[in-house]
Amino acid sequence: MSDSTVVGLHHEEQHHPELLHHFAEPQQQEDSASLGMWIFLGTEVMFFGGLFCAYLIYRLAYFGDFAAASQTLSWKLGATNTAVLICSSLTVVFAVYAAQQGKRTMLIGSLVLTIILGFAFLGIKATEYAEKFEKHHVPGPSFQFDNVPVPGHPDQMANRGHAQIYFALYFIMTGLHALHMIIGIGFFTWLLFAAWRGRFNPEYNTPVEMGGLYWHFVDIVWIYLFPLLYLIDLHK
Amino acid sequence: MFDNFPLWPDRASAAAGNVDALFIFLLIVSGLMSLLIFSALLYFAARYRHRRGVLAEQIEGSTPLELTWSVVPFMVFMVIFVWGAVVFFKSRTPPRDSTEVYVVAKQWMWKLEHSEGQREINELHVPVGRDVKLIMTSQDVIHSFFIPAFRMKQDVLPGRYTLAWFRATKPGTYHLFCAEYCGTQHSGMIGSIIVMEPAQFEAWMSGSPAGPLSASGEKIFAELGCVTCHRADTPGRGPNLEGIFGKPVQLEDGRTITADENYIRESILDPGSKVVSGFKPVMPTFQGLVSEEQLNALVAYVKSLSQPAATSTRTAAATQQDNSRGAGSQVQ
Amino acid sequence: MSMATATIQPVERENYLNKEYGVGSWLFTTDHKRIALLYLISITFFFFIGGFFALLIRLELLTPASDLVQADTYNKLFTMHGMVMVFFFLIPSIPAVLGNFLVPMMIGAKDLAFPRINLLSWYLYIIGGIMMLHCMLTGGVDTGWTFYTPFSTAYSNTKIVEAGLAIFVTGFSSILTGLNFVVTIHRMRAPGMTWSRLPLFIWAHYATSIIQILGTPVIAITIVLVAAERALHLGIFDPRLGGDPLLFQHLFWFYSHPAVYIMILPSMGVVTEIIACFARKRIFGYSFVAFSSIAIAVFGFLVWAHHMFVAGISVYAALVFSLLSYAVAVPSAVKVFNWTATLYKGSIHYDAPMLYAFGFIGLFTMGGLTGLFLAALGIDVHVTDTYFVIAHFHYIMVGGALMGYLGGLHFWWPKISGRLYPEGWARLAALIVFLGFNLTFFPQFVLGYLGMPRRYADYSHMPEFQVLNVLSTAGATVLGVGYLLPMLYFLWSMRYGKPAPDNPWKAAGLEWMTTSPPTTFNFETEPVVTWEAYNYDEIDSAHKQEVKVVG
Questions:
Q1: Is C376 in contact with B55 (Cβ distance < 8 A)?
Q2: Tell me, what's the pLDDT at B192?
């Protein structure tokens, strides 16, 4: 870079090692990252939104069949997963706090716990998927859904085609969510290594905050998925 | 190549005049608007050409002008909107005593069946002056029934009925096109609408005798065993179908819907979705067991159970209607 | 009379082009200007592919019979023409080339907020492009670019999943570009560059970016659903299994309508800059033009089902969408009026960029007016799915967006390349494009009203359509020549063009206060803005006092 002067920055001055060259000062960089992450989460809302839209339309049209299909899921496992994710959001909050306070041990511990809880979620999801596979509830050529009564209407059998739509949406929605969890775990693993190497401190902890935002978002998506998918007409 | 060089389509239906009138209005409005803008552009471009020593005059704007040229066009747009909506409503509202023709679209042909029973492929004979209602469905993908001379178009969907109607006003043969891309032979899925004088049409009808569609529907109704549950004499396991067509029906879940073509069709293919109040969901599904043509016949049959006169008197009434109307465009 | 003055530079100064050499310095660059050029090359490549398909389509339609290619091939041709032009040319074009190059410079920044994500955007575009090329070379797709269900999910035998995935990947390129622009415009403006001092090109790109961010994910998920349905024989859109084909159409058009505003808004931004410069005055009604861009973006999300008036939606839904479609027409009209009013008491020069801007206003006005026809329910029933619609959107996309893109390329070419293009050839090309365009697409309005449906390989039963088709094809060949010319002379100018001064047009704007071409970091010192946008009065009166040597 030529020896020109740029407002706020002098060649001789020690500027923060994490400051990228095109930003004038660290605050600008952090504000940009934050706005960028919020916008990215906005795109994710729209992405999942299309799925939620399709789901809501079909649920309204085929309520009984969706209820029948939904009740083949284990709401207990779903509730457990919900608790797991909420706890993981708590550990994320601790991680962000620790990074802001410069508490390296707490940061590393919180990141580790978050990752473990993330894997716990995926593990429970995997057992749920395995059970669906065994029961032939995976949409496709081997899909079976015969003689399952509509909750509250014991003599009415659920429509196979409609049930398949439910499961198609179930797998796509929870599968997409799980994919986002995997990406999140990957990112947090990188955060763990970076934290281990002492990269984060009270002056610079933007990646931890951004990771936190992302993780909370993925959590919120699940908070919507759980009641919509698992809790249809359960009292019947 | 130059023998046949039309610049305006034939006008052969009652609705065509309405559409053309709005179109011409829009041509005039657009023409005026373009003239206004283009002449302003050209005039300014010439008048305010760069001249040595003459500087441009910086003008920030003018809020009154901005409001004017926002509000005035919007008001013009509203006029167009309302006019267009009125034309649209009329074109979407078949008159009550229209003759019905069932249309089944498939890759890559049109199968038509008059309610009197005549079947046609890629052709539709209609008499001048008669309201014709099309009840259409597709066997496979989405198609679209398009008659340019009638300014009429309606997509034809698999899994449900869509409706359209027209009243031909000029004898002749007119293009029928498929207007929704549907695969390899999309451009081959074309045919003709043949509009005849009423007398010629009667001759054509009697030339190919066939039982009315509702009669074949009645046969299928018996063959498939529908009559065992849907009885007119005693209360059966299914609702009595006499007189129900077109009337509101209360469903088991509390909703009230109208028993139209789509409801009848849905009840046959997916009986569990809209069960009538007071009945158990025991009806088996006939998905895969009936063809589209058979479904049309069954729908026609159920409709006939709601009509005051028998089918033969029905045709006579329709003929009376044609003769009193005569040929000639009637703008509604 | 050309406005450019030439200065001879004996020694080439360091700039972003010559700072580093080697393929690696280009493929791993984070300089927004180099990325803009990478995009320029790639989208030009896809433009000519899409254009080649268009040529074949028009050649086939010279004669009524399907005699040049078989129906299946023709169906693939119009599908690939649409997919390539929409997703790989029009959507990226101005934002990825001119936007990337100019947004940081116009606001006084050294780069975009996320330079590495900018490079990632380009790679995603290239990966999607390669996937699409592979798909085309191994069989292609025949569903139309709109890939309606159930034809695309259960009946077509072509490579829909692959094409869908290609578009999915490229879609993320669009999303990330939009994200980058919004953050940059919010956070990286130089001191004194307030929102009301921003060039309207920036406002237009801001509005475009909102649409890219909010709309593109919806088509992404739609593609996922279609791919899943095809691969696993699901029934989300298949009526035989309880699905609804109309749900697909709603999801598809929810993005694809706003997408057309992605394609036109940046072009409007370019035209605004050009008109201000070549009329030597501030745009008439700056705030109204700025807010019109935002209004178009917002309302653009509310009108999607006007593509579905005869698709089987209820009459009441149709009413609502027709009404809203008229609402979205108002801000576009307002812009046309403001551009025209800007010429009043201006001092107008007719260099090539201005010719393209004039062409834009004329053709966009015609395209927009025919949109009023389509929004009228009673008329749409007759003309939807016919050549009327094709003519309408080509007037806007080609007569509008593409003219704006070409005008912008010419306007900023001296800045981008450090060279002047040959003005005489440029004016000729603009004229050829304008005439060829009208000859190609005006007959199609007539064809549409006559009833010629779109996507027809064969019209041998309707020979009365032939004359208009022949006219259209004749126009297309002229148009093709008009597009080839700039490609040739731009390339020529890179080697043999006159070196460009820093500000050949004496234009307002921070980008013109840098060298031509600019240095890698754009500004030697961070600018501090104390003047309003389009300060042509200051610029021109200052120049009046200079002693000028006209070379």
A1: no
A2: 96
